[in-house]
Amino acid sequence: MKPLTIVLAESGIELVPRSIQSHSSVISSARKRNKNPSQILLDISLHYRAMKKLNEWYKRGRPDIVHISLLNAFSSPLNIAKLLRVYIHTYDNRIIHIDPSTRIPRNYNRFVGLMEQLLLVGKVPPESANPLIFIEKKPLSVFISEKSFDRVLIMHEKGDLIPPSSLGISIVKDMKNDRNVCIIIGAFQHGDFRKEFLTISREHVSIFPKPLDSWIVVSRVIEGIENTLNIYASKSLNMDINI
């Protein structure tokens, strides 16, 4: 059975842009951590006043969205059963690859430190020839094309309304037929996908008639697939990963 791929798109994970590194709010937060302003993550809760100068500031500086979404995904029975792959696409068109066995830090500050190291060095652990996490500069459309997915769905509030249970049935059917399925989920707080992203696939899906937080969409989509697979009671799946 092919694993499901989830891409967290336009994620608000980036180092503080050079244009606002001299702002007092950035300098203050960097000083508290004994770091250079160029070495810290952009965070709207800390850098709101500085960020108002940035293009599409309302979509950026939200690493917490990614953190919660990753915790939901990587702790799921679907991932434990080795049937899930998760990638992060960042606002500035980078792709973060994460080994499914990676233990995502539960503590938010540790997660921030991990992402800062990744953006500065390019991989985690820094000295590893086979890193658990690495990053590359690549547009989302190119990444999707290179992976040659058989089916790509975009979770969008204006998409066709499909309950998670029905969506799970549809996706599991493809997975069992060895078809590579990719689900793109926006990981930003406000606004919409860039127009070019919406053209990546014509299959736009919504699981609720109103906007939902990214991590809720992640958890409900995964749960729909798990329920279809009856993964909670199955003894046939490879469950050899320690929780």
Can you offer a commentary on this structure?
The chain has 243 residues and is of the alpha/beta class. The chain folds into 2 domains: 180 residues, SPOUT methyltransferase, trefoil knot domain (Alpha/beta knot); 40 residues, no CATH class. It is 36% helix and 19% strand. It has an 8-stranded mixed sheet, sandwiched between helices. Helix 1 packs antiparallel against helix 2, helix 3 runs parallel beside helix 9 and helix 7 crosses helix 9. The C terminus is likely disordered. Methyltransferase involved in ribosomal biogenesis. Specifically catalyzes the N1-methylation of the pseudouridine corresponding to position 914 in M.jannaschii 16S rRNA. It catalyses: a pseudouridine in rRNA + S-adenosyl-L-methionine = an N(1)-methylpseudouridine in rRNA + S-adenosyl-L-homocysteine + H(+). One of its GO terms (molecular function) is rRNA (pseudouridine) methyltransferase activity. It is an enzyme of class 2 (transferase).
